[in-house]
Amino acid sequence: MKRLIRVAFLLVALGFGAWAVASQWDAVRSGFARLSWPSLVLSLLVVVAALGGGMMTWRSLLADLGSPLPPRPAAKVFFVGQLGKYIPGSLWPVLAQMEMGRELGVPRPRSAAAFFLTMPVQLGSGLLVSAVTLLAARPGAAAPYAWMFLLIPVLAVAFEPRVVNAVIGFGLRRLGREPLERPLTRRGMLTALGWALLGWAAYGLHLAAIVNQLGPSGASAVVFSVGAFALSWCLGIMTFVVPAGAGVREVAMVAVLAPLMDRGSAIAAALCSRVVIILGDLVCAGAAGLAARRGTPTGDDAGNDAIPGKAV
C-alpha cells in the first residue's frame, strides 16, 4: 500500500511539473533555441549543486535536532519529497518527508521542524545574498525591493536558537505533542546557513549561464544574476498556495532582470531557468533513489544499525 501511495505521489508531482513546462512551451522553446548546449549543461550541473546545497541545509538542521541521516537516505528523503512542491498546496513536501523519514526512524515532529526551519534559513540567506549582490552589481536595481530587505534583521533575530526553540516548543504544546528531544544549537544553525549560502551561489551561476547567452556577459552580469535569482525565489516562496512558486518567481525574475536585459530576453531567461530547475529536481530525485536502493542493506544487516543515530 505504501508503495502504491508513493508511486501515485510521484506520478501526480511529475504531471504538475510537466504541466508547468507545457503551459509555456512556445516561449520555452524559443528561449532554448538561443542557448548553446555547453551553457545548458553548465546550467544544469550547477542547479544540481544548488539543490545539493538545499539538501545539506535541511540535513544539517535535522542532524542538529537529533536525527543525523547518512547522505544516501537523506538525499532520497529530501529530493523525492521535494517533488511534492509541484503539487498545489504547501504541505505535500513536508508530508512526504515525514513519512519517508519515519521509515528511517526519524520522528514526524522532528522531520516537520527541520522542514519548516529550512524555509526561513533559505529566505533569510537569500535576502542577504540578493541585497549584497544587487547593490554590488547595480545599486539602483535594488531600490524597488528595499521593503524586502527590511526582513533581514527580523529573520536574523529569528535565527537565534533560543527563539527558534521557544517557537517550536510552543507549537508542539499547542498541538499536544511531546517537546523535541534535542534543541537547535547555534552551531547547527550556522552550518545550515553556510550550506544555504553555497546553494545561492550555485543558483546564481545557473542563471548566469543562461543570461550570458541571452544578454550581457561579464563578472557584473554574473554577480547580478546571483542576486536576481535569490530575490525572485524569495518573492516566489511567499506565495505558498502556488506550486513551487510557479509563475510568481518567473514574473519576479523578469522584473528584477529588467535593468540588465530587454523584456523578451528576460522572459526567455526566466522560463529556461524554470525548465532547467525542473530537470535538476528530476535528476536529483532519480539519482538519490537509485543510490539509496544500492546502499540499502539486506538480510541481517538491515535494521537500526543501518541508520546512525536512529531514533525509536
TrEMBL record:
The chain crosses the membrane at residues 39-62, 115-137, 149-172, 192-211, 223-246, 266-290. It is a multi-pass membrane protein. Pfam families: LPG_synthase_TM. Its main location: membrane. InterPro entries: L-PG_synthase/AglD. Keywords: Cell membrane, Membrane, Transmembrane, Transmembrane helix. It is found in: Cell membrane. GO terms for cellular component: plasma membrane. This is Membrane protein. It comes from Planobispora takensis.
